[in-house]
Amino acid sequence: MTTFASGTDTLTRDALTVLQPGFTGTTAPDWLLRRLGEGLASVGLFGRNIASPEQLATLTAQLRAERDDVLVAIDEEGGDVTRLEVRSGSSFPGNHALGAVDDVELTREVAAELGRRLAACGVNLNWAPSADVNSNPANPVIGVRSFGADTALVARHTAAYVTGLQSAGVAACTKHFPGHGDTAVDSHHALPRIDASSDVLSDRELSPFRAAIVAGTRAVMSAHILVPALDPDHPATLSRPVLTDLLRGELGYTGLIVTDGMEMQAIAATYGIERGSVLAIAAGADAICVGGGLADDETVRRLRDALVAAVRSGELPEARLAEAAERVRELAHWTATAAVPAADGTGRTDIGLVAARRALKRTSASPFTPLTEPPYVAAFTPVANIAVGEETPWGVAAELARLLPGTETGSYSGPGDQAALTALEAAGDRRVVAVVRDEHRHPWMATALDTLLESRPDTIVVEMGVPQASPRGALHIATYGAARVCGRAAAEVIAGV
User: Fold this and answer.
1) What is the model's pTM?
2) Residues near 209 by Cβ (< 8 Å), separated by ≥ 6?
3) For residue 165, how far is the Cα from the chain centroid?
């Protein structure tokens, strides 16, 4: 039986209901369980909360013992952005690899299997997929998280992903509305701006969201981006013209609107999380995502009190807050009624590796002879964006070591020429496998490859980001992402398995 808030008034309960906070640790802290009893209806999980599928299932059962209709959300895109497999790398390639294959049935199958795994652990809301059209190659935060730069491709794969994920009883949260692809700034650090015309936005950015809505996406996540053609004064998350007039009115969307993380600097550094949360709900958002960085009871209390005070002062209509809270409850009801029985063995547990293998693009000037001796892997490593995180391993070294025991590796950063010379010294007589991630965005990385290939033209190059730079090396492999399965697929080619 559902535990409803006791000892709190309707206004306070609604203010708690619209929050999606996080916490630290692999078990639910007492304060979180208490808030669930008071009306909190959602909890967000991150890599820090997950040690194993078994532990995660125990954690979500602990939450449901307090409130059986709780929404348990996670940022599990597969590919580079994984929370289920944050310490090992994902068993699923990300969107860019799926877009490279361009088989919508494969995308649907991958999303369905990912959904089955989430559901088995008690997770019922996934902050995915990314429907952003990666039209700006310099984009520092979307990149391989996008299905691609072609609007029609992104639209059809977004719809397939939503359909697959929700077939497992896990609500999709399509993001980042109205589209984060044409940005050169990471909204974790500052407020990006998109200066496209309304016609371009309609044709390019909005098309995948229309497809997601037609596919029945249960949630949409707003972006912390300024789009002057839609609203010259407020970022999308805080914009009534974007969330209410455009998303609700013009696009006809009726599901839950979730904000991106309110502690991201695009909002926190400009408005503060309390003010930002009030403005977001007033603009038409229904749920406030917070907890990636701020993950404590004090944050929940501050946001609850800010919403209550805004209603009591007349700044935020009580009916708007009540409407938002009701949409949260409606989604919770959907997840309960859409729950799918435990997997019966019909799922494609290998579908992620199948997809990663199909996504590979190999380029060579002459026939490639697979390696039989252990190589030296030089990983030219950029700074990971916050969405991806530093803790998730990537590359091909671990998989090559499994196939060619004795493989050694080193990680290098700029300046490029020095990095390459150091790598060459470490490699000695061994064949070099150079691994890069978005070479086109990092001049030092391109310089490193220049230096390396000048000395060792037999070097194998593996690009695990967006393959925008021209292929080079004795063999060039584009994996379209840095998930563990992408590294395995590349290693199999290099070792001839």
Assistant:
1) 0.94
2) 131, 158, 174, 177, 178, 179, 220, 247, 251
3) 14
- 8 Å CB contact between 213 and 248: no
Decide if 132 is catalytic: no
Of the candidates 182, 186, 231, 260, the residue annotated as catalytic is: 260
CA distance 442 to 212: 33
CA 13 – CA 37 distance, rounded (Å) = 10
Q: How many CA atoms lie within 13 A of 205 on its CB side?
A: 28
Among candidates 226, 217, 308, 293, which has minimal Cα distance to 261?
Answer: 293
39: left (phi over 0), alpha (psi -120 to 50) or beta: left
**CA-based end-to-end distance of the chain:** 53
Could you say which DSSP state residue 371 is in? P
For residue 402, the model assigns a pLDDT of: 97
| Residue 89 falls in which region: left (phi positive, over 0), alpha (psi -120 to 50) or beta | left
Rounded to an integer, what is the distance from CA 342 to the centroid of its chain? Answer: 25
Q: How far apart are CA 133 and CA 204, in angstroms?
A: 7
Q: Residue holding tokens 């006791």?
A: 6
Residue from 312, 222, 306, 321 nearest 262 by CA: 222
* Structure tokens, 173: 């949260």
The dihedral over CA atoms of 256, 262, 266, 271, expressed in degrees to the nearest 10, equals: 110
Among 157, 176, 180, 188, the active-site one is 188
Which ranges of the chain have pLDDT less than 70?
1-8, 339-347, 385-386
Task: Indicate if 260 belongs to the active site.
Answer: yes
pLDDT on residue 2: 40
Which residues is 42 bridged to in the sheet? 71
Residue 447: both structure tokens together: 């310089």
- How many Cα atoms within 13 Å fall on the side-chain side of residue 40? 25
Cβ atoms of residues 270 and 262 within 8 Å: no
CA–CA separation, 179 vs 129, rounded Å?
A: 12
DSSP string, 275-335: HHHHHHHHHT--BEE--SS--SHHHHHHHHHHHHHHHHHTSS-HHHHHHHHHHHHHHHHHH
Query: Residue 363, Cα to own-chain centre: how many angstroms?
Result: 29
Phi, psi (5° rounding) for residue 18?
-85, 0
CA 454/CA 277 separation, integer angstroms = 54
Tokens of 203: 């044709």
**Token couple for 284:** 């038409």
CA 85, chain centre distance (Å): 13
pLDDT value of position 414: 80
**For residue 6, what pLDDT is reported?**
43
